[in-house]
Amino acid sequence: MAWRSKHSPFRTGALKPPSLRTAAWCSRCAFLTAKERWPTWSSASTRSRATGPNNPHFGSLIGRYANRIAGGRFSLNGAGYRIPTNNNGNALHGGPLGFDKLVWKAKRIGNGVELEHTSPDGDQGFPGTLTAVVRYTLSGGALKIEYGATTAKPTVVNLSNHSYFNLSGGASADVLGHELTIHAARFTPVNATLIPTGELRPVAGTPFDFRQARRVGERIDEKDSQIEAGRGYDHNFVLDSPGKLRVVAELYEPGSGRVLTVSTTEPGVQFYTGNYLNGSAIGKGGRSYGRRAGLCLETQHFPDSPNHPDFPSTVLNPGERFHSVTIFAFSAR
Predict the structure, then answer these.
(1) What is the mean pLDDT of the chain?
(2) Which residue in 17, 95, 200, 205 is a FRET match for 304, CA 20 to 30 A apart?
(3) Catalytic residues
(4) What is the pTM of this model?
(5) In which band, very low, low, confident or very high, does the pLDDT at 89 lie, cut at 50, 70 and 90?
């Protein structure tokens, strides 16, 4: 399917799938450049500069547990577990050696690639041998990510994708002019280290109300305790109509006319505005990615769910299968 924006010309042709590199880096759909109709998949220069202690997780496949676990600790069936901490005293994105740092088996499938990894019992402190299978497939203007996992004993699992998006085609160094809609009436407020307090707070009357399209930068620097905690947006939104595949967010860049539509089966999405990007990551064409150069819409279960029994459960038991679908669909107005 070919399409063109009324705002600017695009190169026609099919979106090429990621190469069969046996690693989680093949999910790098992040930044559109002015001459590219679609997001680029991978950049060796970006990859080589973005794997240190300040790794921004560009395009990464995140697990075993996406987002944060408070103090790196949780209990399951009466047993306590500790995950190595790597972010302000908390475990972030599965700990220091999360799934994005590992080599995965890969094979070609119809219109895409399938990745598989077996995480042994005790890996990064998590219980149970976990086998994860993640499929990336392309259809028209859409990238579908399908996650699956099974375990040998009770564990917790939360898989996600950490792509950054800037739809301006290089015309803007940040995403503050993008217009965003999130179909969520509540969000999970956080403490000073970005751990949810347990409250599901209404977005009405706050800078977190994106039920109607708003510019990302419209309220990002307001004097609000939650905005200050995240240095911008770095919060989980409680999505409407959980449990089924539905549209949960739309991102629009007026200058180019490009649109990203996000659909998922997940109950939450982490909206992160690249507040900690500092220019040290260098991408294609020598471009430096500075603060708020891109934004993330990370579909997920809620942060720190193992320590919040009222949150949607992330427990996976033997005989069960974790299954989740997210679709990033690109179009133009």
Answers:
(1) 87
(2) 205
(3) 162, 298
(4) 0.87
(5) very high
CA distance 152 to 127: 9
Task: Give the residue from 250, 262, 274 showing the smallest Cα distance to 178.
Answer: 250
- State the Cα–Cα distance between residues 215 and 168, nearest whole angstrom: 14
pLDDT (tens digit per residue) in 97-138? 999 999 999 999 999 999 999 999 999 999 999 999 999 999
Residue type at 301 in one-letter notation: H
CA distances from 241 to 35, 199, 245, 263, 327 (A): 37, 19, 9, 12, 16
Alpha-carbon dihedral angle through residues 190, 191, 193, 196, given to the nearest 10 degrees = -40
The CATH fold of domain 24-332: Beta-galactosidase; Chain A, domain 5 (2.70.98)
Residues 181/210, Cβ–Cβ less than 8 Å? yes
Residue 30 contacts residue 40 (beta carbons within 8 Å): yes
Structure tokens, 239: 């999505």
Long-range Cβ contact pairs of 186-191 (< 8 A, separation 24 or more):
186/237, 186/238, 187/235, 187/236, 187/237, 187/238, 188/235, 188/236, 188/237, 188/238, 188/268, 188/302, 188/303, 189/226, 189/235, 190/226, 190/229, 190/230, 190/234, 190/235, 190/303, 191/229
Tokens of 270: 């982490």
